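Note to self: user wants both folds in one dump. Writing first protein now.
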Amino acid sequence: MEKEKLTPPQKELYDFLVEYIRTEQHTPSIRQMMRAMNLKSPAPIQSRLERLRNKKYIDWTEGKARTIRILYQPQKTGLQVEGTIAAGSLIELFADEKETLDITFILHQSSFYALRVMGNSMIDDMIQDGDLVIMQRHLNLDIPRNGEIVAARVDGCGTTLKRYYKFADRVTLKPSNSNFNVIECDANKVEIQGILIAVWRDFLYKPK
């Protein structure tokens, strides 16, 4: 039986819940949902939650906070992983056990987006000019962990892809190429726009 379709606001909240619970292993608070949906009142969140529950996408335990459970997820599709291939010495291809590379979580989550890389400041992390980087917007609305690769907007300088480090009230954005300079500035001048989760290299793409 086909599930009842969600409205765009309901789907936005549902996608947020699915990805947040998948990555954080617990339910977000109402306040976190409000901030993620850019809402000033809990009323729209509570209304959307009720609609999602009525449509049997989620459920929760009455009287207990943070007990939301995901009841429904779309059927997964993906690429068949046919086995292992050597990048050193030759090995026999073993393909008795099949697995699937599922990328639908990237395609169907509103918290994910792609950026085309321009430049080679991250080549030591195997990210080169012309690559597409798959970024995840903040879900828990906290700062990233030190060492994570982020898309960061620096006041007066623009947006850049770098490794992030924060110490006290200072932020360091470090390239993965010794030919590029480290960026250091006050934390309040840096806005983290996303955290790297994957890199896509299209060998048919030819940078101009």
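First done. Writing the second protein, which came from a different request thread.
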Amino acid sequence: MTVPADVREHCREARDHARTDGLVPALTLLTRALSPKAPPRGPRGHAVLPKELLDEFAAMEAEGDEHREDDVPVPGLTVLRSSGAGAPDGPEPQLWGAGLAWLRLGMSERLREACMAHLGARQVEGTSLLMQQMVKGALADVLIDHLEVEGVLSELTDGSGDDRVLDRLQDQITRADRTLLRLFGAHGFTQDGPGPTAHASELLADVYRGEDA
């Protein structure tokens, strides 16, 4: 898979926005850059997109087989379910998949930073949780995952990538996120904790991965 230079730039911008601003702003940027004329559809015809983009895709929503759901775990996102295939004006699936992988990497890095801040503020017997050997080992493993994902994504410009590569990267990001959520303890799975956003990130990967995945 060859990723054009302008698409690479949009992907990296989405990663940076995800890391600093969160999921909805990053997905808004990526959608407007890579799929400005139609909702980006997965292989089953579904789409996950920011609510603010719905008006821009109003003509697409007017189709009879559209079904909108707003019960996505992160405010500001919506799911469009459809029995039809992806729109012809949507993005090329592999380029969109690469963009989502970059975005999810940024979200996972954001989660890692939040996790370190959370653990650093908590102590056991006068010692920060960050200094515990098991915690340090888990965080080191996550960091290695992030560096590996970044390295592979950066190499997708040479034409060697395919859907299986992207699927493996998405799975690696998901595993890193789940490791980080466990380090948060119970807080990681509460409504006010980081769990809902991590779940929405995983939902993005599931909606847009290949049908055989």
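Dump finished. Worth passing along: The radius of gyration is 18 Å.
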